[in-house]
């Protein structure tokens, strides 16, 4: 299994709109690609939120092939939509990890 993690720092000015959009539109659109089996939407705790809160969205793909299909066919459009909507109000970075064990 592959864990695709997106960490996003969100400006206070767009926070409420961004969070609502993520839950109502963006995350459902990512899941609708069929490349992920589940997700977790979390807010980081214990960090400086002076510039805005930081969130993490973790998507679980069954294998590297599904993740690569997502990256090639779906990610560019979904990321462009996020960038167009929130531009300089969000800073995101992405990591992928192989799940070794689950409990």
Helical stretch tally: 2
Stretches with pLDDT under 50, minimum 5 residues: none
- Give the topology string: H per helix, E per strand: EHEEHE
Beta-strand residue percentage: 25-35%
Main-sheet strand order equals 2-3-1-4
- Report how far the terminal alpha carbons are from each other: 14 Å
Biggest sheet architecture: 4 strands, antiparallel
> What is the strand tally?
4
Shape: globular
What does this structure look like?
It is a single chain. The protein is of the alpha+beta class and 103 residues long. The chain has one domain. The protein is built from two helices and four strands. Helix 1 packs antiparallel against helix 2. The longest helix is centred in the last third of the chain and has 23 residues. The radius of gyration is 14 Å and the shape is globular. The model has no long low-confidence stretch (mean pLDDT 97).
Task: Please describe the structure with a list of short key phrases separated by commas or semicolons.
single chain; 103 residues; alpha+beta; 4-stranded antiparallel sheet; 4 strands; globular
């Amino acid at each position: 299994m592959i864990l695709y993690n997106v960490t996003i720092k969100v400006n206070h000015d767009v926070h409420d709109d961004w969070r609502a959009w993520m839950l109502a539109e963006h995350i459902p659109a990512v899941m609708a690609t069929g490349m992920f089996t589940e997700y977790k939407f979390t807010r980081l705790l214990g960090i400086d939120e002076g510039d805005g809160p930081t969130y993490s969205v973790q998507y679980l793909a069954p294998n590297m092939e599904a993740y690569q299909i997502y990256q090639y066919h779906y990610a560019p459009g979904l990321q462009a939509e996020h960038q167009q909507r929130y531009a300089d109000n969000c800073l995101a970075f992405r990591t992928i990890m192989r799940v070794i064990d689950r409990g």
